[in-house]
Amino acid sequence: MKIIAVLDDHPLLLEGVASFLNNQDGYLVYPFLEEITLIEFLKVTKADLLLMDMQLLKTNGVDVCTQVRKLFPMIPIVALSNLADGNLIVQFMQAGGNGYILKDVSNEEFLGCVQLGLDGKEAICDRAKELYRGAISTISSLPRLTQREKEILTLISNGLTTNQIAEQLFLSPVTVETHRRNLLTKFKVKNMIELVQLAMKHKLLGLE
């Protein structure tokens, strides 16, 4: 009997998924509305798979995935979401996820992905796989930022002016302006608003 934990803060959806899986042979499903009770359960029960929503009331799927992966490195974690967003799928997989299933898949495809997850394989439904590959392709085609460019872009996103950035990084305002122009050219955007939006979308901000 395979033990599957399901996390979703929508009671009706949670009950539906749990009921559907429990009606299949070989599955024992434990539903959870909050990540806190899920974590406590996983501390005392060896689950074979975690299915989890990406939109949670008090947190988000990427953060929960990161936490669960850190505490329980062996459990396969598969998202079950209605968010068809390639960048989000990339973030989830980078956080330690093993798969991503969109909630509008057929019963057959859903069960196929569940079995892949239980087998420790990548469990991504066909549509999510297309979105995932597209996002990976886009990210890989983006220009690489130097460490200094990352610092300046992060400070720009925080609302600092050229003079404030220059003072904080011990640079001249002329040097900062040069970096700003180079960033616009490198990413082929018209202004800093577009640049910051692009950087946030693809998680380019911050120091590594």
From TrEMBL:
Record keyword Transcription regulation present: yes
Domain Response regulatory residues, every copy: 3-118
InterPro entries xrefs: CheY-like_superfamily, Sig_transdc_resp-reg_C-effctor, Sig_transdc_resp-reg_receiver, Tscrpt_reg_LuxR_C, WH-like_DNA-bd_sf
GO BP terms in the entry: phosphorelay signal transduction system; regulation of DNA-templated transcription
Pfam families: GerE, Response_reg
SUPFAM superfamilies: C-terminal effector domain of the bipartite response regulators, CheY-like
One GO molecular-function entry: DNA binding
Residue ranges constituting the HTH luxR-type domain according to the UniProt record: 138-203
Modified residue annotations for 4-aspartylphosphate: D53
Protein name: DNA-binding NarL/FixJ family response regulator
Organism this protein belongs to: Sphingobacterium siyangense
